[in-house]
Amino acid sequence: MRKVFEGVTRKGTGPAIFLAAVMATTPLAATDGGGMALPAPVTDEVYLAFGEAEVRLGRDLFYDPLLSGNRNIACATCHHPRHGSADGLSLGLGEGGKGLGPDRVADTVNTPEQRIPRNAPALWNLGAKEFTVLFHDGRVEVDPSRVSGLRTPLEEDMEIGFANLLSAQSMFPMLSPNEMAGHYKENEIALAVRLGRLTGENGAFGRIAKRIEAVPDYRDAFAMAYPEIAAGRPIAFTDITNAIASFLATEFRSDTSPFDAALRGETELAGAAADGMKLFYGEADCATCHAGPFLTDHKFHAMGQPQIGPGKAERFEKHDRDVGRMRVTNDPADAYAFRTPSLRNILKTGPWGHSGAYSDMAAFIAQHADPVAGLFAYDRTNAVLPPLPNAVDHAILDASEEVTAIAAAVKVTPVALMAGEIDALIAFLGALTDEAALSGRLGVPETVPSGLPVDR
């Protein structure tokens, strides 16, 4: 296995020059003996590098509920290694939930207001430099024209100091009332978010940083990771997200699967997996979108996925729909388009789809092959949804005009797949399972500096 920690600092990898680094390190395609255009093997150079002290600090923060408004939910709660860095649910229960994975239930004393509108995405290989856009709708993106080097929904409220895209992405769950912040009547962080006070000493960012600063073990760990803090600078919110990003990039690196071994010429896929790879890069046309070493083109496509949850709407909006990328671009051409996910460890990260509509991979592949037919034939029992009083489930599917709009956005040509071919594709996807990565590098800590319980 490759070294866990490569390099000591992130100097020279800030967002402003991030895109240039990507262009310099993205592997070119290779061709196997059968004529398939395959990606080149993944190498160390395609990843960001971090020091060990920073990564270990990031692990503690990732598993520590102290970052949530009510000190009861950690980043790891919805992105846990037990569930392939996701949560095993179609739509998660954030603030107000109890338990882990499919066993998570609503707290009867502090019941969630709604389900998380979209499926918790897996975290594999987000430290690779080619990942320049994140979230299902791409609302966080590298943009060298911005002062911060990043484009996010916060616009002018963006703090300066996020070391990379993954760091900036890490802040948004902490600001979400339904995910980690909680209700504005419950804690000072949620109240600051509700009032629109993010930056400044009494903003949400500053209040989270003060919580961490007040824990002596964290202060010591930050001083070990960042020399300027050792010299006396207070801990900033961006230090917290930078450390978390370093852990995510290191812990969830995955490039030692059987597929990777085949790309490196160390072995060959055989049997159904080989048949599935031939289909994937051939007649099934999967690789048009699931391209490159991480099997994603990082673009947005309308694939007719069923929406089973509450949708994405502002407080002043009355609809329940989720139009995906269009919410970011305001371009009707992007309606119902969502980012192509990476397929690494894909069989371990279900349910699948932007709303987690499918817990059965065969059904998911069949719908993907013929999106419109699959949408209208969707079996709602495919969803994994713990009971939630007053939940808005399947509302869009119950409105024929909404389903018709999702179908109308699909522009792909259907592909006819036989049952045996779907089985072969699943076997190939199984070859993307990286058991070494799934077992973890640092793993789940026994304790965290705050002393709060760790989800195990």
Care to describe what's here?
The protein has about 450 residues and is mainly alpha-helical. It is built from 18 helices and 9 strands. The strands form 4 sheets. Strands 5-6-7 form a 3-stranded antiparallel beta sheet, covered by helices on one side. The chain has a two-stranded antiparallel ribbon with strand order 1-2. A two-stranded antiparallel ribbon has the order 3-4. A hairpin with a 5-residue loop joins strand 1 and strand 2 (about 35-40). The two termini are about 25 Å apart.
Summarize, please.
The protein has 456 residues and is mainly alpha-helical. Helices cover 32% and strands 5% of the residues. The chain is built from 18 helices and nine strands.
Provide key terms for this protein.
single chain, two-stranded antiparallel ribbon, 456 residues, globular, 32% helix, mainly alpha, 9 strands
